[in-house]
Amino acid sequence: MSQLTLLEKPLEDIKPNRWITITEQRDFTEFLSNVGVNVEGLDWCASTWERYQCSKDNTHTKKIRYRSCSKRGLCPRCSMAYASQRANLQYQWIKQNLADRLDFDLKMNQIVLTFPESLHDIDSKSFSRMIKEFMKEFEIKAYGYCIQTRHSKDPLSDIYKHCHILSLNINPEDNKLVESKYYFDVNKMREVWKDIIERHTNSKIEGSVNLHTKYASIRHDKPEVLHLLAYLYRYSIHDLFNVQIRKASINYVQCPQIENSNDKALRLQEVRSKITDLIHEDKSRIIWCGLLTSTKRAELMKLMLYADSIQSSLDPTEYIVQVDSFAKPGFHWKSLVELEKEMRVRAKECRDCGSPYEDQPFETGNYEMDNEPMTRTNETTNTIPKCRVASAFGRKARDTRNDCSEVERTSA
Ligand SMILES: [Zn+2]
Ligand SMILES: [Zn+2]
User: Fold this and answer.
1) How is domain 98-235+283-290 classified at the architecture level of CATH?
2) Measuring CA to CA, which residue among 133, 137, 159, 158 is closest to residue 147?
3) Which of 83, 175, 258, 335 has the greatest number of CB atoms lying within 10 Å of its CB?
4) Ligand 1 mean position to 265 CA, how many Å?
5) Model pLDDT for residues 183-223, shown as the tens digit of each residue
């Protein structure tokens, strides 16, 4: 940092993707460091900025970026930035290849499958089989799922296995894709899920099971779709940060009942070991299934081609311009790699004229304000910290069956 020429100049622009305030980052770093987790360089992340100008005209819009630590999985800011970037990429893939070409409103539907408390530690293989059976029952042909083992509202608690499914309302019929409306029948989903659990685990469930679902239009509700996607790409450190700092809903290192200094040291040690596990564990993977797998790509493209040719027939010029590998006009399927490249190129271009930005920043400085605009998750800050250490010690602090961070905003 010392080699930077830091101008003590306040930054007036609001950068929407700062993700986290300086205070939050400092508090989180302090929390980790008090517990004994190595946090070297973490509080530095995004504390300095650099500004680039257009190589053709220096009155054009400047580009600003924060210098980051790139410690994904440990740094909440870098983890959030990563999840958002991946979500955006996947969003563009679905929108440009599918949503923009279909003659109905393509929707992303999220289904959260949970278990009764006694089955929270079910093995992932059985769980996957149950998920597939569920999807088959509803004839859902395009989806991705992600099995998660931590409760986002108490990420250091006991194992809490649940699954987030993101599906698309498309169904192949007569060589084209038609709209499917499976997601309206939530009661049937609950019944089917209960039946599957009972059959696969040889258990009897009293009452109904928890299953949550909501959907958003790909084209008309981009923020919500991005939110659904980013949730699946997030690192667990993000949940720990939310709970301990941003929402202050649990304080893992403070509990008034424990006064004995030996007990305190033991607790710190236990919290440290739980956090270390959380940092080093493999991130849950998203598994794409059905029409969204790469082996079904050609089939999906053919189905889309049919839909596309109907739409393009409105504009005869399209037929002259492009011919793709199916010898049909106006069809270009963008791969994730291609979209990623496009985004990288766009990030280096002046927003006003498209010329490249200069290689070197013309200004750098310390970021000293908290000018992060309000985000959804910011809105619930400043609640009184509660003592919830019990869960970090294997005792059940509360019933976790009913909640899941996504559930609060479930559509009716
Ligand atoms: Zn960072
Ligand atoms: Zn320019």
Assistant:
1) 2-Layer Sandwich (3.30)
2) 159
3) 83
4) 29
5) 678 889 999 999 999 999 988 888 888 888 889 999 999 99
Distance from residue 51's CA to the centre of ligand 1 (Å): 18
Token reading at 367: 């970021």
Report the separation in Å between the CA atom of 359 and the middle of ligand 1, taken as the mean of its atom positions. Answer: 22
Q: Counting ligands in written order, which one lies closest to the CA of residue 39?
A: 1
What digits encode the pLDDT tens for the residues 67-98? 899 999 999 999 999 999 999 999 999 999 99
The long-range contacts involving 1-7, CB below 8 angstroms and separated by at least 24 positions, are: 1/44, 1/48, 4/48, 4/364, 5/364, 6/48, 6/364, 6/365, 6/366, 7/363, 7/364, 7/365
- Rounded to the nearest whole angstrom, what is the distance from the C-alpha of residue 66 to the centroid of ligand 2? 21
314-327 burial, b if ≥16 CB within 10 A, otherwise e? eeeebeeeeeeeee
CA gap 347, 341 in Å, rounded = 10
> Which residue, among 34, 32, 28, 121, has the nearest Cα to 80 in the 3D structure?
28
Q: How far apart are CA 280 and CA 91, in angstroms?
A: 28
C-alpha of residue 245 to centroid of ligand 1, in Å: 16
Do 102 and 172 touch, CB atoms closer than 8 A? no
